[in-house]
Each structure stands twice: as C-alpha cells, then as structure tokens.
From TrEMBL:
Residues 1-70 form the DDHD domain. Keywords: Calcium, Phosphoprotein. SUPFAM superfamilies: HAD-like (SSF56784). InterPro entries: DDHD_dom (IPR004177), HAD-like_sf (IPR036412), HAD_sf (IPR023214), LNS2/PITP (IPR031315), PI_transfer (IPR001666). It is a peripheral membrane protein. It comes from Loa loa. GO terms for molecular function: metal ion binding; phosphatidylcholine binding; phosphatidylcholine transporter activity; phosphatidylinositol binding; phosphatidylinositol transfer activity. This is DDHD domain-containing protein. Signal peptide: none annotated.
Length: 391
C-alpha cells in the first residue's frame, strides 16, 4: 500500500479555516494499492493498473464532504455494519423451531440469497429466497420460521407474513396486497438468531426503461471465483453513474450463483457503484447463460424496456437472444458482431457526453431507491434535494 502524507499544521484553508480542523495533523492525499507483485509487471501494463487503483481511491471532494458530515476515521462501506434491523421492527426472543438447528448452524456464518424482484404494476409480486449457513451453502435452514417485512416508499415497516422454510431452506412470499409503483425495501428475518436478508422489490409502470450491466467481464477486469476482490475496469464506474444520473434504473446481472449475493453486493458498494437491482442465477444450474436470457426475456415480455446493455463478448448472444436491439448492446472484451465494441470506458463516456447515441437521453423514472445511511450510496434525488436546500 503506497501512502503519501503531507503535514498541514498552521496551514490556512482559503485563509479562513484552519486545515487541521479538517484533516488532523496529517492528511492522506492518495492511497494506491501497490502489491509487491507489481514489480514483475511490464512497464507498459502499469498505467492501466495505476489508473484503476486511483479511481477506486477516495477523491479529494469526497474526502472534504466526509470531514464535514462525519467524524474522523471514515472507512469504506461495510454492508455488514450498515445493515441492521430497524428499531421500529419489534421482534420476540430468538428461538429455533427445532432444537438441533442451534447446533447445526453453530459457528457457521449466514449465507442467504435471493434476487431483487422486478415486476410491472398490477402483476403478481412474489419474493423468493434461500437460507443456508456456512461456505458453499453447507447447511440448509430447514423448517424454520422467517418473517417478511416491507417498507413501501414513503411509509413505515410492515409485517407481510411469517412462514416456514422447506427442507432445502427455500421460502416464497406472495404479496396479497399489491405494492404501488416504486422501489420498496424488503427484510427477511430469521426467528432463530435474528439474522436477515435484504432485498428490493421494484414495481414499475409499463414501458419503464432499464440499463443492464453484466458484472463479470464488463465491470470486473480480473476473474475471482473464490470471492477475492476482483479489479474494476478503468472508467466503468463513471459510465454506470452516467446512466444512473440520467434517471435510469440499473440492473446488475451475473452468472454467479446466488450464494454469492452478499459478496457481490459488498463489492459493488465498496467500489462506489450506484444503486441497482441484483440478479443472480440459481445455485445449481447447468446452463448459466440461458438463465441470463430467461431473466432478461421475462422483463421484456412484461412490457419493460432495456435502453442499453453492457457485457463481455459472451453476453452479446445473451442480450440478442433476450430481444435487445443490436445497436444498444455494448461489448468491452473484444471484437464481436451484432453489437457496438468499446475500446475503453473512458472513450465511451466521451461519446456518451458528446451525444453520439441518440437513445442516451434523460429519463424521468418513478423508481427511487430508499435512503440508506451511507455517504457512498446516496440516492441521486435525495442528493439533489440536500444541496438545493442547503445552498
């Protein structure tokens, strides 16, 4: 880890503020990840590596905001510490239905999984989830009670239903009272130990437009099946933010098994990707790409629209089979027919800003993510309202 420090004692910030009040006695200007193995890399490869590392670090503007809004020592997002059960949800004592469950899951970490739900207003609204413990879903939480709480947009937490998992740890909740248009927060809580799974359910009007990003290949610059932190493609965060700021809801889709739900969600948050809906494949699937096709095709058949879709060369056929127009498919890992090939996200972002694509225009979406207590993942509209009221 390469750290550059600069002393700032007695230095006036804009001749008004003592900078020691902002930074303390020392300031970290930049933090770049510099593993020892970089010595063996050819010099031609270093610029791309350092570029990616720089844009993953905290920039100066974010640093200043954190100093005003938070106390010293702000660290990167840790979803495990941010997510918690709200005080307004009143839970009874932690009790298992079966006594032996306590010993089966002892010393095993929760491994809960599920896809965010996307549906059209008026259609059925069903939540599917699976509850296991341990690595590789070692122990399924069978025949145990789960409570589903939902916080509709602009409302309070509501208990929807309490049900029992099947022998494989799976559970399904069908909402009898339909939710209105919007993105609603879902929390599925295990009665036995009060662990939980957070999901979103997006209820969209017909014709709602989405932008799709395939996680592996288009967002990542390295392969990490074991859960190690893969590198981020240089400039991709800026492209995702571009679409997000235009008003589109982002869908992150991956062929990874749903048991990696927490790992992928944490990786996206740690690298400052904007809020989006997460879609995984079932844990046991023999045709991963076909599962992607089925997910996307179901959204289009609902009457939803995909404005743009980004992926690797393998995803081009997936998007085409699902029904996405070829001029709206972007490939970032090599020449491929039936799509637009991108040399780099930096050049692509320049093309977007210059209006090269006529379909990349502002979209007034009614889908707004609920506010979360984190500086890095504030909702775009909440941010806008904050600065409007305080400037």
């Amino acid at each position: 880890m390469l750290k550059i420090y600069e002393t700032t004692e007695k230095f006036l910030f804009y001749s008004i503020l003592d900078s020691s009040l902002l930074w303390g006695n020392h300031r970290i200007d930049h933090i770049l990840h510099s593993p020892h193995a970089m010595i063996a890399l050819p010099s031609s490869a270093l610029p791309n590596v350092l570029h990616a590392s720089y844009w993953e670090s905290d920039d100066v503007a974010a640093f200043i905001l954190k100093r005003f809004l938070h106390s010293e020592g702000v660290r990167p997002i840790n979803l495990a510490s941010i997510a918690k059960i709200p005080a307004e949800i009143k839970l009874g004592p932690a009790l298992w239905n079966k006594k032996r469950t306590k010993y089966k899951v002892a010393n095993l970490a929760p491994s809960f999984s599920g896809n965010d739900v996307i549906c059209v207003e008026g259609n059925e609204q069903i939540i599917h989830a699976r509850f296991c413990y341990g690595p590789m879903d070692l122990v399924a939480l069978s025949r145990e009670s789960i409570s589903a709480y939902i916080r509709p947009t602009g409302s309070d937490w509501q208990l929807v239903k309490t049900d029992i998992t099947d022998s494989h740890g799976k559970i399904t909740f069908e909402l009898k009272k339909r939710l209105p248009i919007g993105i609603h927060y879902v929390k599925l809580i295990v009665h036995g130990d009060h662990s939980f799974l957070d999901l979103y359910i997006a209820v969209a009007p017909p014709g709602e437009q989405f932008v799709v990003f395939s996680v592996d290949g288009s967002l990542t610059a390295s392969v990490s099946v074991t859960g190690r932190d893969p590198r981020v493609r240089p400039g991709v965060v800026d492209v995702v933010r571009y679409w997000y700021d235009l008003g589109y809801t982002i869908i992150y889709i991956t062929a990874r098994p749903d048991m990696q739900h927490k790992v992928v969600a944490l990786w996206l948050a740690l690298h400052n990707f904007p809020h989006g809906l997460l879609i995984f494949t079932p844990s046991f699937s023999t045709d991963l790409l076909r599962q992607k096709v089925l997910h996307l095709k179901s959204y289009l058949e609902m009457g939803l629209s995909i404005t743009a879709a980004y992926g690797s060369s393998k995803d081009v056929a997936v998007y085409s089979s699902a029904g996405v127009e070829s001029n709206r498919i972007f490939s970032v890992t090599g020449g491929k027919r039936g799509c637009t090939n991108i040399d780099s996200y930096a050049s692509h972002l320049k093309d977007l800003n210059e209006g090269l694509y006529d379909f990349a225009k502002p979209f007034d979406s009614p889908l707004v993510f609920p506010q979360i207590n984190s500086l890095n993942i504030l909702n775009r509209r909440l941010k806008k309202n904050f600065f409007t009221k305080n400037c």
